[in-house]
Design brief:
Shape: flat
Largest sheet: 7 strands, mixed
Structural class: alpha+beta
Number of strands: 30
InterPro entries: BatD
CATH topology of the largest domain: Immunoglobulin-like
Keywords: Membrane, Signal, Transmembrane, Transmembrane helix
Protein name: Oxygen tolerance protein BatD
CATH class of the largest domain: Mainly Beta
Distance between the termini: 106 Å
Strand content: 35-45%
Number of domains: 4
Helix content: 25-40%
Pfam families: BatD
Number of helices: 9
């Protein structure tokens, strides 16, 4: 009996020592999926004390901590030890993140935790806890998105105004954007709100102060239910507590709070099919239309400008102007597109125009026929058509059109054909062919040329070989030439991709970037628009050419969010080729 008792004690001691010898070091998270406005708790637990604890990299989060706790317990004579390092993490943005390994040294051995994957989604509704200081903040601060119209037409302007409402008993120290809306399926432009002052207002019937943080104008590019993503802010503020100071004033506590404007949905109506003109290109708003000429009386070889312009309020940057139709006897150059458009809360306002340079070659009067422009009027909710006046171009001095003159004379001097028996007398019926003796090749000019040609090619080959060796040794120059070839290659790919929007604009953008690498001697990571403008100005390139180049890059970006037809693609391709040519000519 005693033997059994001793064996049981020894077995118990062995089991206890084995359990105590097994070291555990783990990372535990409160959740693996959270909203960008939520906090994540992560605990690094160990069952034996250690040294040199090293936390993982928390660069994707705002970190609070660590908090350290130690617990000892005895259960049925068995000691349980636990030491914990606790961190509270607030995500900086949406995405999938991996919390890497933490390390610690226990009894001379390095232990590591297993990496933890965490998914951060858009802002979510958080449960309310009236005993939490965060709840006090959430009840007294609100971020609101005010939308001017929730059921607009396609390409009708709407505005989104983001206001931060703060109760008078809350003090906001600072804020920063955690997540910005991306406005998929919209053409968008932010309006400058710098210098905005805090104003007094009401929120749900209560007095609040508010500040306008952002204004954005949107033009929907699709019909149906469209989602407007929320703006999310991280706020640092002070909120009152139930404690009082010696003077009876409420003691404030500092709170970090993430607030979101919430998702918004609008319903976009399609434009009516009834009465839609065949030449309608998507213009929506209220416009006037005009076609004018800089000259109506001139001499041949002089130039004039014919301007086709639209002015008013609406989606001025999102449709094409009608093309000018001119007589074939007038030499016409590609039009220069000009935009003078400002955007405010009501949308785009201003004018756009295409200016054609025309050079008449011959004397005469040339009519410029009337052209029309159609748009959808939002006030009357119907389509309207505007027509230009006919213009007569009078070319007073210059040569006559020889083609038309000769054709006129030929027509007026036609005579009847008189048939006779001798009408085929000019055809010879007898021949007087003579034999030709073969010539000899020896000592001819061709013989001496072929004999001397190899000797003439020797110095040319030597010069060519020296230039090739020098070219091969020029590593930097070869890199520039390679980039130039790539630009031509991508421009060729862009031409082949006409009609395929995404492939075309990707190829066009690559061509422009590689051209800049070749021309400006810069790498891809330096290709910001400000850097491009600065370097091109140093190369003495005209500001207008630089503006056109930046405009093409913006067109490549805008094409991802707007419908583009093949005519627009062809225009962008021609403009890119023309702009590259101008930069080549002007750059010093």
């Amino acid at each position: 009996m005693k033997l059994v008792k001793h064996i049981s004690i020894i077995f118990f001691i062995l089991i206890t020592s084995m359990a105590s010898a097994q070291v555990k070091f783990e990372a535990k998270v409160s959740k693996k999926s959270l909203g960008v406005n939520e906090r994540l708790r992560i605990d690094f637990e160990m069952n034996k004390d250690g040294d040199n604890f090293t936390p993982p990299d928390f660069s994707s989060f705002n970190v609070s901590g660590p908090n350290q706790s130690v617990s000892n317990s005895w259960i049925n004579g068995v000691r349980t030890y636990k030491k914990t390092y606790t961190y509270f993490l607030t995500p900086k943005s949406r995405g999938n993140f991996t919390i890497s390994q933490a390390t610690i040294v226990i009894d001379g051995t390095v232990y590591k935790t297993v990496p933890v994957k965490v998914t951060v989604t858009a802002a979510v509704d958080k449960p309310k806890d009236p005993n939490d200081p965060n709840f006090i903040a959430s009840e007294n601060i609100h971020l609101v998105a005010e939308i001017s119209k929730t059921n607009p037409y396609l390409n009708e302007a709407i505005s989104v105004v983001y206001k931060l409402y703060v109760s008078p008993n809350i003090a906001v120290d600072n804020w920063n954007e955690v997540d910005s809306p991306r406005y998929n399926d919209f053409w968008s432009q932010n309006i400058n709100t710098q210098g905005q002052k805090v104003q007094n207002g009401t929120y749900k019937g209560e007095d609040y102060r508010y500040l306008v943080l952002r204004k954005t104008v949107l033009y929907p590019q699709k019909t149906g239910e469209l989602n407007i993503e929320p703006l999310t802010l991280n706020l640092s503020m002070r909120v009152p507590t139930n404690r009082r100071d010696i003077f009876g004033g409420a003691i404030m506590t500092r709170v970090s709070k993430v607030v979101s404007a919430g998702n918004q949905t609008i319903s976009v109506k399609s434009l009516p099919e009834q009465g839609k003109p065949a030449d309608f290109t998507g213009a929506v708003g209220s416009f006037s239309f005009d076609v004018s000429s800089s000259k109506q009386v001139l001499d041949a070889s002089e130039s004039l400008q014919i301007k086709v312009g639209v002015k008013g309020n609406g989606n001025l940057k999102l449709f094409k102007l009608p093309k000018l139709s001119l007589p074939s006897s007038l030499e016409v150059y590609e039009p220069e597109h000009t935009e003078n458009v400002k955007t405010n809360s009501a949308g785009m306002q201003g004018d756009i125009s295409d200016s054609y340079t025309v050079v008449p070659q011959y004397k005469g009067k040339y009519p410029i026929p009337s052209i029309s422009f159609s748009y959808f009027d939002l006030k009357s909710k119907s389509y309207k058509r505007l027509n230009s006046d006919e213009i007569i171009i009078d070319v007073q001095n210059g040569p006559l059109n020889n083609v038309s003159t000769s054709e006129t004379n030929t027509t007026s001097n036609k005579q009847a054909v008189v048939l006779s028996n001798d009408q085929f007398a000019f055809i010879k019926t007898k021949t007087n062919f003579t034999s030709i003796r073969p010539s000899y090749f020896f000592k001819t000019n061709l013989f001496w040329s072929l004999l001397l040609l190899p000797f003439l090619l020797i110095p040319i080959a030597i010069v060519f070989r020296n230039k090739k060796a020098s070219r091969d040794a020029d590593v930097y120059g070869n890199r520039i030439r390679k980039a130039d070839k790539l630009a031509k290659k991508y421009l060729s790919n862009a031409k082949k991709s006409l009609g395929q929007k995404e492939a075309f604009y990707i190829a066009l953008e690559k061509a422009l970037h590689n051209y800049l690498k070749a021309k400006l001697h810069i790498e891809t990571n330096e290709l910001s628009k400000d850097k491009i403008e600065e370097l091109l100005l140093k190369k003495q390139v005209d500001a207008e050419v630089i503006k056109d180049f930046k405009g093409i890059l913006e067109s490549c970006e805008l094409a991802r969010y707007t419908p583009i037809d093949i005519v627009t693609m062809q225009d962008d391709f021609d403009k890119a080729a023309k702009t590259i040519s101008l930069i080549d000519k002007q750059a010093r």
